[in-house]
Amino acid sequence: MLERDGAMGQQRAFTERPEAGLPRHIAIIMDGNGRWAKKRRLPRTMGHRAGMNALEEIVRACNDMGVQVLTVYAFSTENWKRPADEVSFLMQLLLEYMKKKLRELHEEKVKIRLLGDSEGIPEPQREAIAEAVALTADNTGLILNIALNYGARREILRACQMVAQRVRAGELKPEDITEADVEAQLFTAGLPDPDLLIRTGGEMRVSNYLLWQIAYAEVVVTDVLWPDFGRPQLLAAVDEYWRRDRRFGGLGKN
Ligand code: IPE
Ligand code: IPE
Ligand code: MG
Fold first, then answer.
1. Nearest ligand to residue 48 Cα
2. Reported confidence tier of residue 253, pLDDT bands at 50, 70, 90
3. What is the distance in A from the centroid of ligand 1 to the CA of 228?
4. Threshold 0.90, pTM exceeds
5. Ligand 2 atom showing the smallest separation from residue 75 Cα
6. Is the Cβ atom of 49 under 6 angstroms away from ligand 1?
7. In angstroms, rounded to a whole number, what is the distance separating the alpha carbons of residues 24 and 102?
């Protein structure tokens, strides 16, 4: 399902270290919009707008490179704590992004998916995302997961509840529950785990993001603020990923 036409060819042309391979799945915590705006004495909202442009560039870069999955943290379950005007600006911006970019994303064969509780998302945004997901469902390019109203603990809890229902229905015994049974109920079911987790804005924390899936992700934290994060910064993060020795608990190459 994840095999992409020509992806291997592009990968070889792109990387000087084909043996290391591209990360199949890149997850990003797009942080630092507010600080970017503050540095320029602009309202925080302008930082979010600039962040939207950065997202556009990174989606295109990942698609061009042949990355299979890009997961971006757009709005967390905790972000509802922010002032109402900032929350509504962010929601408006999402609508704007969908309206302006959906056609282009579709033409570029990007497949859009939602990670998060759709019930908690306001109606217009929920509809716009549902439309984008339906329109791009058969696309074979980059899978773009938008984490919106997303919290990893809630995702894992939801998965536990679904597994528990299977137990109650007599389909599964508690002692037979496997990691695959839990994984099958996550929003990312069927996708490879992130190989590379990038956080912009310099904070050394994961802020309730993909807690199950990042078990063995390589973490790259950069001080660059999200609106300043473009293609060169993405390539630098991938370069850093290549320099890592992924051991998965074993002894590795060195
Ligand atoms: C990230 O930027 C965007 C969202 C959380 C929606 P912030 O708004 O958190 O920016 P900082 O961290 O305040 O600079
Ligand atoms: C994480 O950033 C969430 C998103 C990027 C959407 P936050 O700015 O909300 O994270 P904290 O509050 O610094 O942990
Ligand atoms: Mg922040």
1. 1
2. confident
3. 13
4. yes
5. 6
6. no
7. 23
